[in-house]
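FIELD: query
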Amino acid sequence: MSENKTRIFLVVVDETEEMTVALHYAARRARNSGGRVALLNVIEPGELQQWGAIQGLMEQEQREEAEQLLQRLAKEVVDISGTVPTLYIRHGQPSDQLLKLIREEPSISILVLAAGTGRGGPGPLISYVVGQMAGDLRIPVTIVPGYLSDDQLDAIT
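FIELD: result
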């Protein structure tokens, strides 16, 4: 990898417990490799499409919540990696927006996801990424077990 090409670790953020593991893993990898972190939050379409004014207010509220979440998580990334992450907010289906972002941003070099720890399996996004989307990705995907502690993450990064 050339010296001027910074490795960018992309994390799809939401409110799940395992997402924090992916975030901490990516931030540690960025710190240890001279890379950076990018955070993507996708606001899924609402179900009140026919109620325009209400839908507009809901979307504004969702955007504010997404911005607050990203700011809180960005602070965690800075605390761990020492660098400010790039933040993305998109509207639509998470899998579609993820693929679109990866195609639009050639600087993104690795996708980091954490597997769910419950009975529901690894999670719908991981299932999609390693299944239908795998042939369309131009970057490697790192899937981190969602139960790892910070000490365990330190040991593998």
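FIELD: remark
Helices lie at 17-33, 52-81, 94-104, 124-130, 150-156.
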